[in-house]
Amino acid sequence: MSDASYGRDRRSFPRPPLWLNLLLLVIAAATFAYAKHERDVIETKSAILFKRNANSPAELNRIRDELSQADLTQAQLNRELDGRMQYLKTLQSEEFYISIDTQRKKMQFRFGRAVVREADVQIGEAKTIASPAGKSWTFLPLKGAFSVTGKEEGYDWEVPEWVYALRKETAPAARAVVPNGLGRYVIFLPNSYVIHSPPPPESPLQGPKPGSFMVSEADLAAIWPRITTQTRVYIF
């Protein structure tokens, strides 16, 4: 075969148009800039919290110590930082709010820096529950800053399907309704998490709801009049 015929048989591929090259460069630059922005935001927040200062409040130093020892993903760290930064701002305010320290297992009802009432808190185990029918429910550890979504005293609790699955039972078509099934006092948080008082003996749930928080009836009764949908809850 001659050199001429070889040249005729060889295939060539068209070059991509200039606009496509420019578009790909713009997308790559925007992606890099966004990732850098996210990293800078986290580093800025981290610098505020992790830079120890002899004049820093004891509360801030304690938060730094806890975060420095925690094994967190970037998303978890960002969520923790946001929650704790909001909490530190609230310390300077004149507002009622709830803080839950999951390490000390303490709930504090506070007004600015002042602790109005402190109570022991039981924390529901984080778990995944599977039913015989193949359905599953996952209750994750709750951390961060939230607003109360509602509250109920004397709440008639329709027993959810996951409770039957937890007890290795098949849920009936008409599920039972238990007066005060989650306890006399229930404070609702986003995504079906709650702060509740102890359930009565006739409730199928004994102890804290998975992933949620149980506080004595007397302690919740004491703070009950001050709890509204404007109340912030900080869980660490």
Short key terms for the protein model shown above:
13 strands, flat, alpha+beta, 25% strand
Could you give the topology of this structure?
Blueprint: H1 3-9, H2 18-50, H3 58-69, H4 74-91, E1 96-101, E2 106-111, E3 114-123, E4 127-130, E5 136-139, E6 144-147, E7 150-153, E8 156-158, H5 161-166, E9 177-179, E10 185-188, E11 194-196, E12 213-215, H6 217-223, E13 232-235
Parallel strand pairs: 1-13, 11-12
Antiparallel strand pairs: 1-2, 2-3, 3-12, 4-5, 6-13, 7-10, 8-9, 10-11
Helix pairs in contact: 2-4, 3-4
Could you state the order of secondary-structure elements as H and E?
HHHHEEEEEEEEHEEEEHE
Number of strands: 13
**Termini distance?**
78 Å
Poorly predicted tracts of residues = 1-9
Largest sheet descriptor: 9 strands, mixed
Helical content stands at: 25-40%
Mean pLDDT: 79
Structural class: alpha+beta
Oligomerization: single chain
Radius of gyration (CA) equals 27 Å
The number of helical elements comes to 6
What percent of residues are in strands? 15-25%
Provide a descriptive summary of the structure in words.
The chain is an alpha+beta fold and 236 residues long. It has helices spanning 3-9, 18-50, 58-69, 74-91, 161-166, 217-223, and strands at 96-101, 106-111, 114-123, 127-130, 136-139, 144-147, 150-153, 156-158, 177-179, 185-188, 194-196, 213-215, 232-235. It contains 6 helices and 13 strands. The strands form 3 sheets. A 9-stranded mixed beta sheet has the order 6-13-1-2-3-12-11-10-7. It has a two-stranded antiparallel ribbon with strand order 4-5. Strands 8-9 form a two-stranded antiparallel ribbon. A hairpin with a 5-residue loop joins strand 4 and strand 5 (136-139). Residues 1-9 have low confidence and may be disordered.
